[in-house]
Amino acid sequence: MVTKGSKSRSTSGQFTQLGADQVRELKDAFTLLDKDGDGTISAGDIEEMLVSLGQEPSKGEIDDMLDKMPRPLTFSAFLTGMSSHLCDMSSRQELLAAFQAFEDDDKKAKGIKADDLKSQLADFGMSNEDIDAAMSSFIKSHGFLGDRFNYKDFVDIMRGEGEEDD
After folding, report:
1. CA distances in angstroms from 52 to 23, 45, 47, 48, 59, listed in the order given
2. SS3 40
3. I need a labelling partner for 21 at 20 to 30 A (CA). Which of 70, 105, 109, 161 fits?
4. Domain holding 99: CATH number?
5. With contact defined as beta carbons under 8 Å apart, do 80 and 12 qualify?
6. Residues 6+ apart with CB under 8 A from 160
7. Are residue 98 and residue 151 in the same domain, yes or no?
8. Cβ neighbour number for residue 47 with a 10 Å cutoff
9. Statement to judge: residues 68 and 124 lie in one domain
10. 96 and 82, same structural domain?
């Protein structure tokens, strides 16, 4: 029987694509969200988390969030949803290889020339305004090495990872 708010389930085969450390981290995140310790993330758990972050969500906002999630939101459902999201992301090596295609042959220079990157993004159909907005928000925090775009840091940030040694 399908109940209101039920969503079709993703395949649990995606679990096997996660490493033990990732599963452990997701379990820790789930435990933090499951404030009452009943094994499910409820509207009350989400409300408590948002309030602890300084938010004042309405019942409608919480219901909207929950309507986008499978119910009951057990660890298994949480793990399935998160593994699906994580597995959809390209691997770090694939992303780095894509950016490396834009590097010039100077092995001493790190990153991609900013002008070359802007030109390539424009060729893919991005407007100059969108390119400038995307690059400036990243550059403010850590994106340039001289006149070069530091794509390794960018890839790590987009994947939610810290700096890694190559």
Report:
1. 25, 11, 9, 6, 16
2. strand
3. 70
4. 1.10.238
5. yes
6. none
7. yes
8. 19
9. no
10. no
- Say whether both 84 and 148 belong to one domain: no
Which tens digits make up the pLDDT trace of 51-97?
A: 877 788 888 888 887 777 788 889 988 888 777 666 655 677 877 88
What's the CA gap between 77 and 74, in Å, rounded? 5
pTM, two decimal places? 0.44
Structural domain count, the chain: 2
DSSP state of 12: G
Identify the three-state secondary structure at position 35. coil
Written as six digits, the tokens of 112 are 């991609």
Q: Which among 32, 36, 121 has a CA at the least distance from the CA of 78?
A: 32
